[in-house]
Structure formats: C-alpha cells, structure tokens
Write a structure and sequence with these properties.
This protein is of the alpha/beta class and 695 residues long. It contains 23 helices and 26 strands. It is 42% helix and 19% strand. The strands form 6 sheets. Strands 1, 2, 3, 4, 5, 6, 7 and 8 form an 8-stranded mixed sheet that branches. The chain has a 6-stranded parallel sheet with strand order 11-10-16-17-9-18. It has a 6-stranded parallel sheet with strand order 21-26-25-22-24-23. A hairpin with a 6-residue loop joins strand 2 and strand 3. Helix 5 crosses helix 6 and helix 11 packs parallel to helix 16. It is globular, with a radius of gyration of 31 Å. The chain starts with a strand and ends in a 10-residue tail after the last strand.
C-alpha cells in the first residue's frame, strides 16, 4: 500500500519527482490557483461593471423621469433587467470560483481511450472550470467523473456526449485541498480508499450535513446516477449515507436535466424542521438552489381545508392511553389503507340513491337519477352531480316549451341532488366507512372541529371521492425521507397527490411508532413496484459502536466500516442525582475534547425536557423538540424521535434500564439512539441495563 504523504512532509531528495504524487500535485495546484485567481478577478470586474451600468442607468432615469418618452423608458427598463440578470450571473460565477479556490478538486483520473497512444488526465471537483477554452476541472456529476467512482485500474468506459467511450483507466489519485493548501495526494487502490475514507469519517460532525462528493462509493454512485425515472426506494441501515445519497441524486438530476428540471420543481418531504435545517446546506454546497420543503401535516391540511384542524401527533412513549393506541394501530395497517381506497372508489360510483324529483309537472324518477349518476364513468361525485344537474335543467327547459313550467337554476337542482348523497362531505363519509366496518369506536374527535392525527390522511383521501385529487403537477421530483415513519394510508395519499418520479428512503429497522404497520412490501405495492436499492455498509459510527448496535439488533444485515474508536462506556448512576453528576463530567470532557456536537438522548420527549431544564442550571444546552427549527453545534438534549436522521460526535443515552427498554418496539428505539453516535458513546443506566445491552 502506498503511504499517504501529508502536507508539510518533504519527499526524500533521491525520489524522482514523477513518482512523487504530492510534489506533482503541489505544482499542478499552484498553476490551477493562478488560473482561478485570474477568473475570479475577471468575474469581479464584470460584476463591478454591471453594477456601475445599473446605477448609471437608474440615476439617468430618475433625473430625467419627466422628459423621457415612454418608448425610451421601456427600453431602459429592459436594459436594467438584462443588467440585473448579468450581475446575478457574475456574482454566482465569482462565488463558485471563490469556493473552488479554497478546494478546487478532490481526484485525478488518467484515462486512455481506445485507439489513443496516451492517457488524458482529468481533475474532478465540485464544479466545472475552464480556462482559455481548456477544461481544467470536471464537475463531479460529469460522465468522466464516473471513472473515479466506478472503476479500479484497468478496463473502463463512460458515456460522453459524443457516445460510449471505452479504454483503460491507467491512474486514479485522491487529493485533499483545504484553504488552497495541498493536504495529501495519493495514488488510489482499494486499501488506500478505505484509509482515505477513515480519515474523512474521523472528522468531527458539523451542525449541517456535508456533501460527500470526495468519498462517494461505487454502490452509492449507482443510486446517484440512476436515471431510469419513476420511483426509486433506498432501504439503508443507519449510517449508510442514504439521505446524503438522495440529496446528491437530486443535484445530479438537476445537472443532467437542465431546462426541464429546476429547484422550483423539486420538493423534500421532511420528518421535522430540525432535520430540514440539518440537511439544508447540502444542495447549496453542490451549487444548486435549495428546494421546497413539505410535511405530511401540511399536505393533509391543504386537502382538508380550513374547516377541519389536525391535532398534534401522539407517541406511545409519552402517552399511556391504550384506547388511543388501539385506534392508531387499527389505522396503521396496509389493510386499512386498502379498505379506504376501495371505499372511496365504491362511494364515488354509488354515492347517490335517487328519489323522485319534480319541477312543476316534470318529474324525474329516482331510479332514473340513480342510473344516470352511475353512468358517468370514473368521474368524481362533484363532477357527476354537475353533469346530472345540467341534464335535468336541459330536460326541463325542453319540456317547458309551450307549457307553464318554471325552469330551475342549476344550483337549485344541484342542491336537491346533494340531499340524495349517502354522505355530504369527507368527514361524513369517514364516519360511514367506520360504521360499515363496525369500527365506530375507532373514531374520536380530539376537540370540536379537530380530528386526531391518524384520521387526517384517511379523511383527506376520502375527500378525493368528492373532488378528485388535485395533483401537484408542478412538482416533478419528490424526495421522501424516513419512509418507515409514514403509515400505509399516508403513503397512499402522497402517491396519488404526487404522480411525479420519487426518491424514497429510510430504514425499517429504525421505526419509532409501534402503531405503524408499514412494510417495504406494502410500499412497493403502493408505488407501483419500483426498484429497491439496499445499502448495508455503515460509515457513520466506529466499529465499537456498530458492534453494540448489532448486539441490540442481532438479525440486522450490516457491514460496518472498520474504523476503531474508544470503547462504549457503561455507567451505573443509581438515581437522578447520579445521572446529573455523570452528565456534568461528560459535558466538561466534551468541551475540552475538540468534538463539536454532543447529543444527550432519552426515550421520552417529556423526560428529555426535564433533563434539559435541570442541565440549564449549570450548562449551555439546547432542547431539540417539535417546536425547534434549527440544529447547531454544542450540547443538545433530545428524545429518540427527534434525534432521528441526525448524527453527533458524541452521544450519551440516558436511563437505558431494563424496564425502559424491554419490548421489541423499545429495542428499535435503542438501536436508533445508539446509531446517532459517530465517535463516542456512553450508556447511562440507574440500576440494571437493558437486557438488549447485556454481554
């Protein structure tokens, strides 16, 4: 294996410089930075010129407003818009070039195309950069960059704009540049790749998720560059990088589909605001604009309208109401979702039971009304009523000629027909559905005009029987994270509202809601049998932390990267004072450690709040709750539910006792808590640790 030559190390004098990748790359970096500096100066000059032109034109228009004729004013306004657009482009160019100057590239490949006598070197970075018509840096999403991610030395190929190119990959080099200084340059093989990966993963975590373009693995790159269309599901173990991969896939699709896909046509369905903030930096870091964020509550509320409000979501960890849990479990199964869909379809076709309807001497028999209503194909209730009302008005109008018959208004006919419906709205239809299913006991209004969380999406789906689905056609790609936390009926509603292609990701081993009966098989059925990519390699945690995670989930198919760290700590605390004493020591050690993030995690939202209040007496700590909107460095206190999707340099799990983690559901909670830790994990318990943690 080659040794990694670090910045500041002097190569031995007798080493030929052509065999010294560090020295070779130091010279190349110097030349690249000089070209980037010229480009930055040019972009800055262009930006200043456009700003000067904009100010000059605005001043002229202001000073001569009363004397400029309308045609000249119009031309000046067009000019200002063009100048403003050019200024924005110059600013974006300068911003990208400045970022490149800090770290222009991370890899070099030498590829000899078939029929060529020499290999051509290509440098790969976050953005493309050309100088005097020559490509200096290729974008990580470009076809040639696939050589770095997908091939070892030997036969290789890529799809260029001119066609399929085959040849030989003669060299791969991994390069690290920070603050415009070369940190290392090493010729790549599988052993070096793992060493570089471990070096990257040994870094402390940030308050924002980082891009992973320099360390994308072959199996990850296959997902990122998948352009098959439709829906793609990523089932990945904790720490497999699935969220980052999905975001990089979005950036890749934006790059590949310029003109047909932009940031305004992409949305992310996030589990909470904190997670949304945590991932918010990835796309901008990759040179793309942030995309729209949505949540299930907002989607359901937009369908239901202002007349129904949705109560807060409840969790069994903090809610001991067995009647509510039974209601939630009933509504969390695939069978319930299928029954809702079938009932909506059935009601749409047979909602109206006709009764004789008369307008003067003109009578429409109930049987005829029923037959006509049911003849209107797959239309919604609203559309069928509208068509039937129109037919009746036309018929009455025709029969009124020469007779004393008052022709009714269509709104009057519509109103009379609506009285013949078995249910007048989605809430009424939901009550009817539960009554027919002999499950009326499973519906309780949380308050007047307020429905329980578990009822929101079923009622929203039934609303489609009346109005149809107002598909969000402007969204062309939807990313759904934490797929395992959405119930079957929630997934079913989303699938109907968003007919676009989707990237759906999560881990069914990290389910935090025992009432949710969602399965991967049910998901595939809902979304039309899409491709499923499985990620089993875990990169986040040290081997010691991963081994404990596998002990908690022994049947879990996980392949941890062999990165060693300190042993997992187990501390018996006895009581709350003992726990607080241990936290005092741990926080002091964390503040002296160089780590950036410490997560103090409890099973319960309620108890996490209590610990947070106690810690505030002596420490600076923030609580991550449903009301939180940001994720930051330092000490954070959170429930397991709120920590999902996040990662911390160090994690302390509180009250990991036998009575706290005993059921299979609690086993999953413990697994989630353990796998939040990157470098250090401490388990605090009062008397006896959970049996899931036993040696």
């Amino acid at each position: 294996m080659n040794d990694m030559t670090m910045s500041g190390a002097d190569p031995s004098p007798d080493q030929h410089e052509m065999h010294d990748p560090f020295e070779e790359e130091r010279r190349h970096l110097k030349a690249t930075l000089a070209k980037l500096s010229q480009a930055i100066d040019h972009a800055s000059g262009l930006f200043d010129q456009t700003n000067d032109a904009y100010r000059s034109t605005k001043f002229y228009m202001s000073e001569n407003r009363g004397e400029i004729d309308p045609q000249e004013m119009y031309q000046n306004e067009l000019f200002l818009k063009e100048v403003d657009r050019n200024a924005e482009l110059a600013h974006l160019s300068r911003e990208r070039l400045t970022r490149l100057y800090d770290s222009p590239y991370f890899a070099r490949v030498a590829f000899r195309a078939q029929g060529e006598s020499e290999a051509k070197a290509s440098y790969i970075g976050p953005f493309a950069f050309s100088h005097n018509g020559a490509i200096e840096i290729s974008d990580w999403r470009s076809p040639v960059a696939g050589l770095f991610y997908d091939y070892d030395i030997g036969s290789a190929a890529y799809d260029a704009p001119s066609g399929h190119v085959t040849g030989t990959l003669e060299g791969k080099r991994q390069i690290k540049v920070e603050n415009s200084e070369l940190v290392y340059a090493v010729d790549d093989d599988s052993g070096i790749r793992d060493e570089v990966m471990q070096r990257e993963l040994s870094r402390t975590s940030d308050s924002k998720m980082r891009s992973i373009i320099s360390s994308i693995q072959k199996e990850q790159n296959r997902i990122i560059r998948d352009e098959s269309g439709g829906t793609l599901i990523i089932q990945g173990v904790a720490g497999s990088g699935k969220t980052s991969i999905a975001l990089h896939r979005i950036a890749y699709l934006l790059y590949r589909r310029k003109g047909s896909l932009d940031s305004n046509s992409i949305a992310i369905l996030s589990p909470n605001k904190v997670f949304g903030d945590y991932i918010s930096n990835v796309l901008p870091e990759l040179g793309e604009e942030p995309v729209r964020e949505m949540d299930v509550r907002g989607i359901a509320q937009s369908v239901l309208g202002p007349t129904l409000h949705i109560a807060a979501q409840r969790y069994p960890v903090d809610d001991a109401d067995p009647a509510w849990l039974k209601r939630a479990q009933y509504k969390g199964t695939p069978e319930f979702a299928e029954a809702i869909a079938a009932y909506a379809e059935q009601f749409r076709a047979k909602a109206l039971t006709g009764r004789d309807l008369s307008f003067g001497s003109v009578t429409f028999e109930g049987a005829w009304l029923t037959e006509r209503y049911q003849s209107f194909g797959r239309l919604t209730v609203k559309e069928r009523i509208e068509l039937l009302a129109s037919e009746i008005v036309v018929e009455v109008t025709a029969k009124s000629i020469g007779r004393r018959v008052t022709v009714p208004k269509k709104s009057e006919v519509r109103q009379k027909l609506n009285t013949m419906l078995a249910a007048k709205d989605a809430l009424g239809l939901y009550r009817l559905f539960l009554a027919d299913a002999q499950a009326k006991r499973h519906f309780v209004m949380a308050a007047k005009g307020t429905i329980e969380w578990e009822d929101a999406c079923p009622i929203a789906y039934l609303q489609s029987a009346f109005d149809g689905f107002e598909e969000l056609a402007e969204i062309k790609h939807l990313l759904i994270d934490e797929m395992q936390d959405l119930t079957p009926v929630q997934h079913m509603l989303i699938a109907r509202l968003f007919p676009c292609e989707k990237t759906i990701l999560g881990d069914f081993n990290q389910r935090v809601d025992p009432a949710n009966g969602m399965t991967l098989e049910a998901m595939r059925e809902i979304y039309g049998n899409p491709d499923v990519f499985r990620l089993t390699r875990s990169y986040r945690s040290t081997l010691e932390i991963n081994e404990l995670a596998q002990k908690v989930k022994p049947a879990l198919d996980i392949d941890p990267l062999k990165r060693h760290g300190s042993p997992v700590g187990f501390v018996r605390c006895g009581d709350t004072q003992g726990v607080l004493a241990q936290l005092d020591e741990a926080i002091a050690a964390f503040e002296a450690s160089g780590f950036k993030t410490l997560g103090i995690i409890h099973k319960s939202d309620t108890v996490a709040r209590v610990y947070h209040e106690l810690l505030l007496r002596d420490h600076r700590a923030r609580l991550i709750s449903d009301e939180s909107a940001t994720f930051s460095d330092g000490v954070s206190v959170a429930s397991i539910k709120m920590s999902k999707g996040l990662e911390f340099d160090e994690v302390i799990i509180l009250d990991a006792d036998r009575n706290q983690y005993a059921s299979e559901y609690e086993r999953s909670l413990l697994y989630v808590a353990i796998t939040r830790a990157m470098h250090k994990l401490t388990i605090l318990y009062r008397n006896e640790p959970s049996t899931f943690l036993a040696n």
